[in-house]
Specification:
This protein has 406 residues and is mainly beta. The chain is built from four helices and 20 strands. A hairpin with a 6-residue loop joins strand 2 and strand 3.
């Protein structure tokens, strides 16, 4: 595959106007999204999400946009105000929460320890500011400031050891700042992405201290995360071959189990910055520092181009959270899959397989995994085949999928 002018031309023409639309989604959307991962060796935590997403521009007023994401026992809402703080500065207010939102699964050295895992419920309110620093340029540079408070309530699951003490109820105050040049639509079918971004998030907790078995682990009163991402996705206009490459790296100060970066699994919409590693349990690795390189190549076959083959790989070094060390600091995974896109573009389904080369299991290194991704877009016919978009939501925050599938 070569990157001819037809590939490069797509970056600087067809895709940039959509990227430049900004942080508040200006297009009406109604869609259903489902994701599921299943390990084939060992017993890992259930990794699944499903939600209905609704976005309504010009809600009550021409400069208001309402976003609602509804998942099992979880609700995420946001009201955006275009130009709320000036012609180049948008404002938004959010409320979210529900059951199992703060549940925690303990995974150490490839073992899912259910007796040390527990459930958590929570809710939060947030406010965000998005400032366009270069309104005259084609590729946008956004400055982002987001603040909020999150309330968490923890309790034992049916499998939690009776002698295990869960963390105390707490409020967490969060402040995130970042710079994003360009952007990405988190969709399996979007043909273009171009992003350079750096971020920092500080968390202050009202309750900290020991928990677990006789206080053998603790919650830090505060933590500081730093991370960045570089991403490029190109699609050939004629053949619809697609190539994507991304590099994500991060570090955390005053780390604990609730602020560590967690890598593993194949759930691309699990968070705004998913740390996917094929073949691994979802969020299997807990890291205080990491670098992760992801690559994906997909191409259509058959004349209608509704079927696509996918190949993917990921890998990088990990510095583990204390107590989660493994003999090797390098992890990598490979995989592939098959996607069918309906002729109307209204829905797609992907069956994907991953193999974790360095995943630690009872038999040694190596683990297999299968996954399923599905999306139905009620607005696809009106917008066109490649206009699917899910801005700024975290569907995996509703851990009710774990309860249902168990």
């Amino acid at each position: 595959m070569t990157f001819s002018g037809k590939w490069v031309g797509l970056v600087f023409s067809a895709g940039i106007p959509f990227i430049a639309l900004g942080q508040i989604d200006p297009i009406q959307r109604r869609l259903v999204q489902v994701g599921y991962n299943q390990p084939l060796e060992g017993r890992g935590p259930i990794a699944a999400y499903g939600f209905y997403y609704y976005n309504k521009p010009q809600f009550l007023s021409s400069n208001l946009t309402l976003r609602v994401a509804v998942a099992p026992i979880y609700l995420d809402t946001d009201l955006g105000v275009t130009g709320g703080l000036g012609p180049n500065t948008d404002l938004s207010f959010g409320v979210a929460g529900g059951g199992f939102a703060d549940s925690y699964s303990e995974i150490r050295q490839g073992q899912y320890l259910r007796r040390e895992s527990f459930i958590g419920h929570g809710g939060e309110i947030t406010s965000s500011i998005y400032h366009r620093a270069n309104p005259a340029q084609s590729v946008p540079l956004w400055g982002v400031v987001r603040g909020g408070v999150h309330e968490s309530f923890f309790g034992r699951d049916g499998d939690t050891d009776p002698g295990f003490e869960t963390p105390r109820e707490r409020a967490t105050f969060r402040l995130r700042t970042g710079l994003r040049f360009g952007g990405e639509e988190p969709s399996l079918t979007e043909p273009l992405a171009l992003e350079l971004s750096v971020w920092q998030e500080t968390r202050w907790r009202t309750e900290s201290g020991p928990y677990g078995f006789s206080g053998d682990r603790s919650v830090e009163p505060g933590s500081h995360q730093f991370w960045g991402r570089a991403l490029l996705r190109l699609t050939s206009i004629e053949s619809e071959q697609s190539f994507e490459l991304s590099l994500t790296a991060g570090t955390v100060a005053k780390e604990d189990r609730f602020s560590a970066f967690r890598l593993g699994g194949l759930l691309p919409f699990a968070s705004e910055f998913p740390l996917n590693l094929p073949g691994y349990y979802f969020q299997e690795l807990s890291a205080k520092r990491f670098a992760l390189l992801n690559g994906e190549y997909s191409y259509p076959f058959f004349s209608g181009k509704n079927w696509r083959m996918i190949t993917l790989a990921a890998g990088g070094p990990v510095e583990y959270l204390d107590g989660f060390e493994q003999p090797d600091n390098w992890h990598a995974g490979v995989g592939g899959g098959l996607t069918f896109i309906s002729p109307s573009g209204s829905w797609f389904a992907t069956l994907v397989y991953g193999y974790g080369l360095n995943a630690l299991r009872d038999h040694g290194r190596g683990a297999n995994q299968v996954g399923l991704l599905f999306q139905y877009d009620f607005e696809a016919r009106r917008r066109g085949k490649f206009r699917w978009f899910i801005p700024g939501i975290d569907p995996y925050r509703s851990r009710a999928g774990e309860r249902i599938f168990r």
